[in-house]
Amino acid sequence: MNIFFATNLKLLRKRRKRTQEEVSFSTRIKRPTLSGYENSGVLPSVENLLTISDYFGIAADTLLRVDLDKLSEFQLSQLERGSDVYVRGSNIRVLATTIDKNNRENIELVAEKAKAGYTTGFADPEYIRELPRFRLPFLSDNKKYRSFQVSGDSMLPIPEKAWIIGEFIQDWETIKSGQPYILLTLNDGVVFKIVENQLQERATLRLYSLNPLYDPYDVHMNDVREVWQFRNFISGDIPGEAGPQQNLARIVMELKKDVEKIKEQMSKNSTTG
Predict the structure, then answer these.
(1) Both 48 and 111 in a single domain?
(2) Are 30 and 113 part of one and the same domain?
(3) Are 139 and 231 in a shared domain?
């Protein structure tokens, strides 16, 4: 088994822009000892390993077993923000992804005909590796994007066959009500909806179609596999009379008002009855 502690320690220290003296002061591990870890391949004691793990916020197993130098910038930044599989266990949402020769995240394309396969293969690195991929220079290297082709009139005014580009959402608590997202759900596969975040109250997300003719519905968080926040779309057709972003908040508010009116009327009927 390969041990990557020496290179990982040096990488993390330099990413934090810390000298060995600064890490030594903060961890109370002698500087020559730290130098030995980085340059001589000396493995730390259990106590020092846990101290360094706490200092960087990276699990001890990761420090030892994962070659962090092979990760993309997106994967490293996610790790540093607390998305460590060894730290969070089953709470982590592991994303299969691809990178280019410069360790930058690709944007994988999930065409309409590939959606059925994506529903079962989304976590399979081999499946994801077979998807077409590209890059857009105006998108951040520190975030992960994927593009999904939309179909059906529930997506209007987004044109049929347009490509929706979404940013991967690791922490679902950050989902903003009234904003559009692409979701991979257990029952419905890939859907593009406006989301109302009800995770705290009901452990559900309420999904609204962009086309207000479709009724909203709730999906339990256990039935959601991935969430991608809408960033932009690519299409050869011109959208309808108003762009999607101008209408999103209005549609959500109108739908919510209609639901409240129905509830209020039902309450009055039950009281008078």
Answers:
(1) no
(2) no
(3) yes
Asked if residue 121 and residue 48 are part of one domain, the reply reads no
Q: Which CATH number goes with the domain that contains 165?
A: 2.10.109.10
Range of the domain at 121: 107-261
- State how many domains the chain has: 2
Note the pLDDT tens digit of each residue in 224-241. Answer: 889 999 999 988 776 655
Confidence bin at 168 (pLDDT 50/70/90): very high
pLDDT digits (tens, 9 = 90+) for 107-137: 999 998 998 899 888 888 899 999 999 989 8
Q: Which long-range contacts (CB under 8 A, 24 or more apart) does 97-103 make?
A: 97/72, 97/128, 97/144, 98/128, 98/129, 98/131, 98/133, 99/72, 100/135, 103/70, 103/71, 103/72, 103/73
pTM value > 0.85: no
